[in-house]
Each structure stands twice: as C-alpha cells, then as structure tokens.
Amino acid sequence: MTSIRATTFYGSGSRATVFLVGEIDADTAPAVGAAVENCLRRVTAVVDIELTGVSFCDASGLNVFLAAALDAAAGGRRIRLRHATPAVRRLFDLTGTASLLDAARNGASVPPSSSARRYIAGATGGSG
User: Fold this and answer.
1) What Rg do the C-alpha atoms of the chain give, in angstroms?
2) Distance of CA 47 to the CA centre of its chain
3) Residues 79-112: pLDDT tens digits?
C-alpha cells in the first residue's frame, strides 16, 4: 500500500504551500485532492504544491492537479507545481500538461529553499 503525507504552510492571506511526500496513485490521490481543496478554500491567490518529496505520480494524481487548476482558475487563483522529480516531470511531459500546471518554466526551476529541504528530509527520514 502506498502512502502520502500532505502538510500545508500558509503565508500571507493570498498564498500557501502544500508539501507532499510519498507516492500519488489511486489510493492516495483523494488525500492529495482533499489537502489541495482545503487550501484553495483559504487562499485568495496562489497555491504552490511542493513535489520534491514525491517519488511517483500516476494519472490519478495528474487528474487531481488538473481539477485543482481548473477550480483555482474559476476562482481567479492559481496552482503552481514546484520542483517535480524527474519521474513526476515525465508524466507532465508525456501528457503535455506541464505548461498548464506551471510545472516547468523553460525546463528550469529554482531549487527548494533550505527550510523546504529540511522539512522533506525530516518527513522522509533523510538528512537535510
């Protein structure tokens, strides 16, 4: 059985970051969707979804992200997927959805902050 851990940090009233650690598949996608939906109810502008700790994502996860992006856009907000691992980025590339989800900007991204790396290392049992 796969698992996912979702933790949300709220910044100003207009921004938040959802940190995901684990695998996103049919078993865990509902939990990811619930975390993102809850965040969208509280945020007025941008929800960043930190994917550094996600080792796998299938079509179930992709559907969650696409639905969240549509919901966000309908409310004048935006979802941004950040720091996808190569395996996760491949899913976006193969499906042609990377640009729709803000998953990539010209193939480059800013590395996660030191606090994000420490959080993910702690959640996965690694060292930061």
Assistant:
1) 13
2) 9
3) 999 999 998 989 998 998 887 666 544 333 444 4
CATH dotted code for 4-124: 3.30.750.24
For residue 11, is pLDDT > 90? no
Residue with tokens 């996860």: 61
Q: Could you state, in order of their start, the residue ranges of all structural domains in the chain? A: 4-124
Q: Which residues of 63-79 are buried (b: 16+ CB within 10 A; e: fewer)?
A: ebbbebbeebeeeebeb
| Predicted structure pTM score | 0.78
- Give the list of residues 6+ apart from residue 32 with CB closer than 8 angstroms, or none: 4, 6, 20, 24, 61, 64
Nearest to 36 by CA among 25, 50, 52, 57: 50
